[in-house]
Design goal:
The protein has helices at 6-17, 48-53, 59-76. The chain is mainly α. It has one domain. It is globular, with a radius of gyration of 13 Å.
Amino acid sequence: MKPPWQRLVERAPAILAAGVDQPVPSPCNSICRMDPVTGWCEGCLRDIDEIAAWAQLPQSRRRAVWAQLPERARRARGEPVAPHQVGQS
């Protein structure tokens, strides 16, 4: 069974390729449980601050969150993180 955030990872390239004038959708998929180890929602891989501030975040910051989702997914699966990615959320 695929993790709930897998579709988000698959959608991320299209979201990021959309024009900067296009609104950036929320990655929420209504599976709202915070992972105590990573601090990310098990459904959308955002942290609580990103979730709480989403409605007020500028489109550029929303894009930045979407850009982080593939790396967060790798970390959530327990895959090794490349040295240049250490410390990135």
